[in-house]
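In this notebook, the sequence line spells out the residues, with the fold written below as integer tokens. This is how one looks.
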Amino acid sequence: MEQIKAHIAVSLDGHTATPDYELDWMPREVKELAAREHAAASCLLMGANTYNYIFEHWGGWPHKSKRSFVVSHYDTNVTPDCGVEFLTEEPLQRVYELKQETDMLVVGGGKLLTSLIKAGLLDSLTIYTVPVMAGKGIGFVGETSGSLWKLSESRVLDNGVVCSRVSRNFVGIIFYTRKVLLTSHYEKRLFEYASQPRVAGSDIRL
């Protein structure tokens, strides 16, 4: 199984962007570090809002050399010939399946990061804490109670930004939640198995 990583800048008051998704408050050094990670990644993962922002901001799709996956309720893909695929049917299950074959870098944050963390799919998170109050805007992550992480690196950049890298602590944690893995097919098979008489030592094949 491969890795899903994220690099994200956060203001002191917990925002990742202004309400209109602008990043004027972010130091250039942080933008350059993030751009370097994007350039090195072979596969990108993002939400629909990030996808729309990138397309409108660049006037097209700038990541044509990469595979890009967009988690969304609706398929509004306007760049299907640029290696972009929308994940609309059981998206977290699809992300889990994709993780078996490729590393992915999360672009953006907020709702998608929250979903990935709650599902146990995010492996590493690098946070750039910028010493500025954004006032209002897009929040960092939502409720992720019970998610355990360990600090693997922390350093202060020249502009006072604190760069912290944390990785998921798997000790005592179920890697992938029952809600995500057990689709209706698995639920049905488990029910059938539980309802049938069994011979000692028999197993279930899903």
Observations:
- DSSP finds six helices and ten strands in the chain.
- The beta strands are 4-11, 15-17, 43-47, 67-71, 84-87, 104-107, 124-130, 138-139, 149-156, 162-168.
